[in-house]
Protein backbone atom coordinates (compact mmCIF):
# COMPACT_ATOMS: atom_id res chain seq x y z
CA UNK A 1 0.00 0.00 0.00
CA UNK A 2 2.87 2.32 0.83
CA UNK A 3 4.49 1.45 -2.50
CA UNK A 4 1.24 2.27 -4.30
CA UNK A 5 1.01 5.63 -2.50
CA UNK A 6 4.64 6.40 -3.35
CA UNK A 7 4.04 5.62 -7.01
CA UNK A 8 0.97 7.86 -7.05
CA UNK A 9 2.92 10.69 -5.45
CA UNK A 10 5.73 10.27 -7.98
CA UNK A 11 3.26 10.42 -10.86
CA UNK A 12 1.59 13.48 -9.39
CA UNK A 13 4.93 15.25 -9.10
CA UNK A 14 5.66 14.50 -12.75
CA UNK A 15 2.21 15.63 -13.79
CA UNK A 16 2.55 18.95 -12.03
CA UNK A 17 5.86 19.76 -13.76
CA UNK A 18 5.24 22.68 -16.15
CA UNK A 19 4.87 21.58 -19.75
CA UNK A 20 7.68 22.75 -22.01
CA UNK A 21 6.97 25.85 -24.04
CA UNK A 22 5.64 25.13 -27.49
CA UNK A 23 3.75 22.00 -26.44
CA UNK A 24 0.02 22.50 -26.75
CA UNK A 25 -1.85 20.38 -24.21
CA UNK A 26 -5.59 20.28 -24.78
CA UNK A 27 -7.42 17.60 -22.82
CA UNK A 28 -10.91 18.84 -23.67
CA UNK A 29 -13.05 16.20 -25.38
CA UNK A 30 -14.45 16.98 -28.81
CA UNK A 31 -18.09 18.01 -28.67
CA UNK A 32 -20.71 15.72 -30.20
CA UNK A 33 -21.50 18.33 -32.85
CA UNK A 34 -17.83 18.53 -33.81
CA UNK A 35 -17.65 14.73 -33.96
CA UNK A 36 -20.66 14.61 -36.27
CA UNK A 37 -19.15 17.30 -38.50
CA UNK A 38 -15.84 15.43 -38.68
CA UNK A 39 -17.59 12.19 -39.62
CA UNK A 40 -19.45 13.94 -42.44
CA UNK A 41 -16.36 15.48 -43.98
CA UNK A 42 -15.62 13.98 -47.39
CA UNK A 43 -12.12 12.68 -48.03
CA UNK A 44 -9.94 15.17 -49.88
CA UNK A 45 -7.04 14.39 -52.16
CA UNK A 46 -3.68 14.62 -50.42
CA UNK A 47 -2.04 17.67 -51.99
CA UNK A 48 1.51 16.31 -52.13
CA UNK A 49 0.51 12.92 -53.59
CA UNK A 50 -0.15 12.85 -57.33
CA UNK A 51 0.23 9.53 -59.13
CA UNK A 52 -0.79 7.63 -62.21
CA UNK A 53 -1.55 4.30 -60.51
CA UNK A 54 -2.51 5.40 -56.99
CA UNK A 55 -5.07 7.72 -55.43
CA UNK A 56 -4.11 9.08 -52.01
CA UNK A 57 -6.71 10.91 -49.93
CA UNK A 58 -6.86 12.30 -46.41
CA UNK A 59 -9.71 10.07 -45.28
CA UNK A 60 -9.96 11.32 -41.70
CA UNK A 61 -7.81 13.26 -39.28
CA UNK A 62 -4.32 11.67 -39.20
CA UNK A 63 -5.39 8.91 -41.64
CA UNK A 64 -4.33 8.52 -45.26
CA UNK A 65 -6.14 6.24 -47.71
CA UNK A 66 -3.97 4.76 -50.47
CA UNK A 67 -6.02 3.21 -53.27
CA UNK A 68 -4.70 1.07 -56.09
CA UNK A 69 -6.40 3.10 -58.77
CA UNK A 70 -6.53 1.29 -62.10
CA UNK A 71 -10.02 -0.26 -61.81
CA UNK A 72 -10.40 -0.65 -65.59
CA UNK A 73 -7.25 -2.83 -65.52
CA UNK A 74 -8.29 -4.70 -62.34
CA UNK A 75 -5.64 -2.67 -60.51
CA UNK A 76 -2.85 -4.52 -62.31
CA UNK A 77 0.58 -3.33 -61.20
CA UNK A 78 2.22 -1.52 -64.11
CA UNK A 79 5.67 0.11 -64.29
CA UNK A 80 4.34 3.31 -62.76
CA UNK A 81 2.94 1.43 -59.76
CA UNK A 82 6.27 -0.17 -58.83
CA UNK A 83 7.90 3.26 -58.85
CA UNK A 84 5.08 5.28 -57.29
CA UNK A 85 4.54 3.04 -54.26
CA UNK A 86 8.10 3.74 -53.13
CA UNK A 87 7.65 7.47 -53.61
CA UNK A 88 4.27 7.42 -51.87
CA UNK A 89 5.35 5.56 -48.74
CA UNK A 90 8.62 7.43 -48.40
CA UNK A 91 6.52 10.60 -48.24
CA UNK A 92 4.09 9.04 -45.77
CA UNK A 93 6.96 7.95 -43.53
CA UNK A 94 8.02 11.61 -43.28
CA UNK A 95 4.48 13.00 -42.90
CA UNK A 96 4.27 14.15 -39.27
CA UNK A 97 0.48 14.51 -39.49
CA UNK A 98 -0.17 10.92 -40.61
CA UNK A 99 -0.60 8.27 -37.92
CA UNK A 100 -2.25 5.39 -39.82
CA UNK A 101 -2.66 4.26 -43.43
CA UNK A 102 -5.36 2.21 -45.16
CA UNK A 103 -4.62 0.42 -48.45
CA UNK A 104 -7.50 -0.74 -50.65
CA UNK A 105 -8.31 -1.34 -54.30
CA UNK A 106 -10.64 0.77 -56.44
CA UNK A 107 -13.36 -1.02 -58.38
CA UNK A 108 -14.36 -4.67 -58.21
CA UNK A 109 -11.19 -6.20 -56.79
CA UNK A 110 -8.08 -5.46 -54.78
CA UNK A 111 -5.56 -6.33 -57.52
CA UNK A 112 -4.97 -8.87 -60.27
CA UNK A 113 -1.23 -8.68 -59.60
CA UNK A 114 1.59 -7.69 -61.90
CA UNK A 115 0.67 -6.19 -65.27
CA UNK A 116 2.57 -8.67 -67.42
CA UNK A 117 1.82 -6.83 -70.66
CA UNK A 118 3.28 -3.59 -69.33
CA UNK A 119 6.41 -4.99 -67.66
CA UNK A 120 7.10 -7.76 -70.19
CA UNK A 121 9.87 -5.79 -71.89
CA UNK A 122 11.77 -5.50 -68.60
CA UNK A 123 11.41 -9.18 -67.77
CA UNK A 124 11.58 -10.90 -71.16
CA UNK A 125 13.98 -8.57 -72.97
CA UNK A 126 16.46 -7.54 -70.24
CA UNK A 127 19.34 -5.22 -71.04
CA UNK A 128 22.89 -6.53 -71.25
CA UNK A 129 25.52 -7.83 -73.68
CA UNK A 130 26.09 -11.20 -72.00
CA UNK A 131 24.81 -13.46 -69.21
CA UNK A 132 26.71 -11.61 -66.49
CA UNK A 133 25.41 -8.18 -67.50
CA UNK A 134 21.86 -9.40 -68.03
CA UNK A 135 22.00 -11.02 -64.57
CA UNK A 136 23.18 -7.79 -62.95
CA UNK A 137 20.33 -5.93 -64.66
CA UNK A 138 17.73 -8.44 -63.51
CA UNK A 139 19.05 -8.48 -59.96
CA UNK A 140 18.79 -4.70 -59.77
CA UNK A 141 15.26 -4.82 -61.23
CA UNK A 142 14.11 -7.48 -58.75
CA UNK A 143 15.64 -5.55 -55.85
CA UNK A 144 13.78 -2.40 -56.88
CA UNK A 145 10.52 -4.33 -57.17
CA UNK A 146 11.11 -5.81 -53.70
CA UNK A 147 11.52 -2.31 -52.29
CA UNK A 148 8.03 -1.45 -53.60
CA UNK A 149 6.57 -3.54 -50.77
CA UNK A 150 9.40 -3.41 -48.25
CA UNK A 151 8.82 0.36 -48.10
CA UNK A 152 5.41 -0.40 -46.54
CA UNK A 153 7.07 -2.42 -43.81
CA UNK A 154 9.75 0.23 -43.27
CA UNK A 155 7.14 2.99 -42.90
CA UNK A 156 6.76 3.59 -39.13
CA UNK A 157 3.03 4.35 -39.51
CA UNK A 158 0.76 1.27 -39.11
CA UNK A 159 -0.60 0.15 -42.49
CA UNK A 160 -3.91 -1.72 -42.75
CA UNK A 161 -4.86 -3.65 -45.90
CA UNK A 162 -8.58 -3.81 -46.77
CA UNK A 163 -9.00 -6.59 -49.35
CA UNK A 164 -12.09 -7.26 -51.44
CA UNK A 165 -12.40 -9.50 -54.49
CA UNK A 166 -9.23 -10.92 -55.96
CA UNK A 167 -5.84 -10.46 -54.33
CA UNK A 168 -3.69 -12.24 -56.85
CA UNK A 169 0.06 -12.80 -57.23
CA UNK A 170 1.91 -9.62 -56.26
CA UNK A 171 -1.19 -8.58 -54.30
CA UNK A 172 -0.24 -11.21 -51.71
CA UNK A 173 3.30 -9.82 -51.65
CA UNK A 174 1.79 -6.40 -50.94
CA UNK A 175 -0.55 -7.36 -48.11
CA UNK A 176 2.02 -9.50 -46.33
CA UNK A 177 4.10 -6.33 -45.94
CA UNK A 178 1.16 -4.62 -44.18
CA UNK A 179 0.69 -4.65 -40.42
CA UNK A 180 -2.98 -5.64 -40.28
CA UNK A 181 -5.19 -7.32 -42.88
CA UNK A 182 -8.99 -7.24 -43.07
CA UNK A 183 -11.03 -8.65 -45.96
CA UNK A 184 -14.53 -8.92 -47.37
CA UNK A 185 -16.32 -12.24 -47.71
CA UNK A 186 -15.70 -12.23 -51.48
CA UNK A 187 -11.93 -11.99 -51.09
CA UNK A 188 -9.79 -14.54 -52.91
CA UNK A 189 -6.04 -14.90 -52.27
CA UNK A 190 -3.72 -16.61 -54.72
CA UNK A 191 0.07 -17.02 -54.82
CA UNK A 192 -0.09 -17.11 -58.60
CA UNK A 193 3.55 -16.94 -59.67
CA UNK A 194 4.16 -20.64 -60.43
CA UNK A 195 1.35 -20.50 -62.99
CA UNK A 196 3.39 -18.01 -65.03
CA UNK A 197 6.64 -19.92 -64.69
CA UNK A 198 8.44 -18.14 -61.86
CA UNK A 199 8.89 -18.19 -58.11
CA UNK A 200 7.38 -15.31 -56.12
CA UNK A 201 10.31 -12.96 -55.57
CA UNK A 202 9.07 -9.75 -53.94
CA UNK A 203 8.08 -10.86 -50.43
CA UNK A 204 5.44 -13.60 -50.21
CA UNK A 205 7.86 -16.51 -49.70
CA UNK A 206 9.69 -14.60 -46.97
CA UNK A 207 6.75 -13.03 -45.09
CA UNK A 208 3.83 -15.44 -45.48
CA UNK A 209 5.39 -18.24 -43.37
CA UNK A 210 5.93 -15.79 -40.50
CA UNK A 211 2.33 -14.57 -40.74
CA UNK A 212 0.38 -17.82 -40.81
CA UNK A 213 2.91 -20.03 -39.02
CA UNK A 214 2.05 -23.13 -41.06
CA UNK A 215 4.86 -24.08 -43.44
CA UNK A 216 2.88 -26.95 -44.93
CA UNK A 217 0.04 -24.62 -45.91
CA UNK A 218 2.47 -22.02 -47.28
CA UNK A 219 4.15 -24.70 -49.41
CA UNK A 220 0.78 -25.93 -50.68
CA UNK A 221 -0.34 -22.44 -51.69
CA UNK A 222 3.00 -21.55 -53.31
CA UNK A 223 3.51 -24.86 -55.15
CA UNK A 224 -0.02 -25.15 -56.56
CA UNK A 225 -1.25 -21.53 -56.94
CA UNK A 226 -4.62 -22.66 -55.60
CA UNK A 227 -7.09 -20.12 -54.34
CA UNK A 228 -7.58 -19.36 -50.66
CA UNK A 229 -11.01 -18.03 -49.80
CA UNK A 230 -11.85 -15.56 -47.03
CA UNK A 231 -12.83 -18.11 -44.38
CA UNK A 232 -9.59 -20.06 -44.82
CA UNK A 233 -7.62 -16.81 -44.79
CA UNK A 234 -9.23 -15.99 -41.44
CA UNK A 235 -8.68 -19.43 -39.90
CA UNK A 236 -5.05 -19.51 -41.05
CA UNK A 237 -4.29 -16.06 -39.65
CA UNK A 238 -3.65 -14.28 -42.95
CA UNK A 239 -6.45 -11.85 -42.08
CA UNK A 240 -7.78 -10.97 -38.65
CA UNK A 241 -11.41 -10.16 -39.58
CA UNK A 242 -13.86 -10.85 -42.42
CA UNK A 243 -16.81 -8.60 -43.36
CA UNK A 244 -19.89 -9.26 -45.52
CA UNK A 245 -19.05 -6.71 -48.23
CA UNK A 246 -16.64 -3.97 -49.28
CA UNK A 247 -18.62 -1.14 -47.68
CA UNK A 248 -18.65 -2.73 -44.24
CA UNK A 249 -15.01 -3.73 -44.70
CA UNK A 250 -13.94 -0.13 -45.32
CA UNK A 251 -16.10 1.17 -42.45
CA UNK A 252 -14.41 -1.25 -40.05
CA UNK A 253 -10.96 -0.58 -41.44
CA UNK A 254 -11.26 3.19 -41.04
CA UNK A 255 -12.69 2.72 -37.53
CA UNK A 256 -9.61 0.67 -36.67
CA UNK A 257 -7.32 3.27 -38.24
CA UNK A 258 -9.06 6.02 -36.22
CA UNK A 259 -8.57 4.03 -33.02
CA UNK A 260 -4.86 3.66 -33.76
CA UNK A 261 -4.54 7.32 -34.75
CA UNK A 262 -6.03 8.39 -31.42
CA UNK A 263 -3.08 6.86 -29.52
CA UNK A 264 0.31 8.41 -28.86
CA UNK A 265 2.26 8.32 -32.16
CA UNK A 266 5.44 7.83 -30.14
CA UNK A 267 3.95 4.70 -28.54
CA UNK A 268 2.39 3.29 -31.72
CA UNK A 269 5.34 3.85 -34.04
CA UNK A 270 7.79 2.58 -31.41
CA UNK A 271 5.64 -0.54 -31.10
CA UNK A 272 5.70 -1.22 -34.85
CA UNK A 273 9.45 -0.73 -35.12
CA UNK A 274 10.15 -3.08 -32.22
CA UNK A 275 7.68 -5.74 -33.36
CA UNK A 276 9.40 -5.91 -36.73
CA UNK A 277 12.88 -5.85 -35.21
CA UNK A 278 12.05 -8.69 -32.82
CA UNK A 279 10.30 -10.79 -35.48
CA UNK A 280 13.60 -11.71 -37.15
CA UNK A 281 15.82 -11.97 -34.07
CA UNK A 282 16.19 -13.92 -30.79
CA UNK A 283 14.11 -12.76 -27.82
CA UNK A 284 17.21 -11.61 -25.92
CA UNK A 285 18.32 -9.39 -28.79
CA UNK A 286 14.83 -7.94 -29.15
CA UNK A 287 14.69 -7.15 -25.42
CA UNK A 288 18.08 -5.45 -25.53
CA UNK A 289 17.00 -3.30 -28.48
CA UNK A 290 13.74 -2.46 -26.68
CA UNK A 291 15.61 -1.31 -23.57
CA UNK A 292 17.89 0.89 -25.66
CA UNK A 293 14.91 2.28 -27.59
CA UNK A 294 12.80 3.09 -24.54
CA UNK A 295 15.57 4.72 -22.55
CA UNK A 296 14.81 7.78 -24.67
CA UNK A 297 11.15 7.19 -25.61
CA UNK A 298 10.07 6.92 -21.95
CA UNK A 299 10.93 10.60 -21.60
CA UNK A 300 8.08 11.65 -23.91
CA UNK A 301 5.40 14.05 -22.70
CA UNK A 302 2.84 11.63 -24.17
CA UNK A 303 3.08 9.43 -21.07
CA UNK A 304 2.28 12.36 -18.79
CA UNK A 305 -0.70 13.38 -20.92
CA UNK A 306 -2.09 9.83 -21.12
CA UNK A 307 -1.68 9.10 -17.40
CA UNK A 308 -3.21 12.46 -16.46
CA UNK A 309 -6.28 11.68 -18.57
CA UNK A 310 -6.59 8.25 -16.90
CA UNK A 311 -6.29 9.69 -13.40
CA UNK A 312 -8.89 12.34 -14.21
CA UNK A 313 -11.13 9.62 -15.73
CA UNK A 314 -11.24 11.35 -19.09
CA UNK A 315 -11.69 9.62 -22.41
CA UNK A 316 -8.24 8.65 -23.70
CA UNK A 317 -9.29 9.82 -27.17
CA UNK A 318 -9.63 13.36 -25.84
CA UNK A 319 -5.88 13.67 -25.34
CA UNK A 320 -4.09 15.79 -27.95
CA UNK A 321 -0.68 14.39 -28.85
CA UNK A 322 1.92 16.39 -30.74
CA UNK A 323 2.80 15.48 -34.31
CA UNK A 324 5.63 13.05 -34.93
From TrEMBL:
It catalyses: (3E,5Z)-octadienoyl-CoA = (2E,4E)-octadienoyl-CoA; (3E,5Z,8Z,11Z,14Z)-eicosapentaenoyl-CoA = (2E,4E,8Z,11Z,14Z)-eicosapentaenoyl-CoA. PROSITE patterns: ENOYL_COA_HYDRATASE, TONB_DEPENDENT_REC_1. It comes from the Eukaryota. InterPro entries: ClpP/crotonase-like_dom_sf (IPR029045), Ech1-like (IPR045002), Enoyl-CoA_hyd/isom_CS (IPR018376), Enoyl-CoA_hydra/iso (IPR001753), Enoyl-CoA_hydra_C (IPR014748), TonB_box_CS (IPR010916). GO terms for molecular function: delta(3,5)-delta(2,4)-dienoyl-CoA isomerase activity. Keywords: Acetylation, Fatty acid metabolism, Isomerase, Lipid metabolism, Peroxisome. Pathway: Lipid metabolism; fatty acid beta-oxidation. SUPFAM superfamilies: ClpP/crotonase (SSF52096). The keyword Lipoprotein does not apply. It holds the Pfam family ECH_1. Signal peptide: none annotated. Gene3D superfamilies: 2-enoyl-CoA Hydratase, Chain A, domain 1 (3.90.226.10), Lyase 2-enoyl-coa Hydratase, Chain A, domain 2 (1.10.12.10). It is found in: Peroxisome. Belongs to the enoyl-CoA hydratase/isomerase family. NCBIfam families: PRK06142.1. This is Delta(3,5)-Delta(2,4)-dienoyl-CoA isomerase, mitochondrial.
Amino acid sequence: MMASRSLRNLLMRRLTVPIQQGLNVDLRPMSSAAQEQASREAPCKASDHSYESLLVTAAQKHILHVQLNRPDKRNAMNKAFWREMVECFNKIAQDSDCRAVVISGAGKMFTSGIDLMDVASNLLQPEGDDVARISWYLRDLISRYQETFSVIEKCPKPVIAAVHGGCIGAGVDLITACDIRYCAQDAVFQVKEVDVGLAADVGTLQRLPKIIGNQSLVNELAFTARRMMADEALSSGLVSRVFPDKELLLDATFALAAEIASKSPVAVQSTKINLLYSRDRPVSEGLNYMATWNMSMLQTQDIIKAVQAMMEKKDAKSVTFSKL
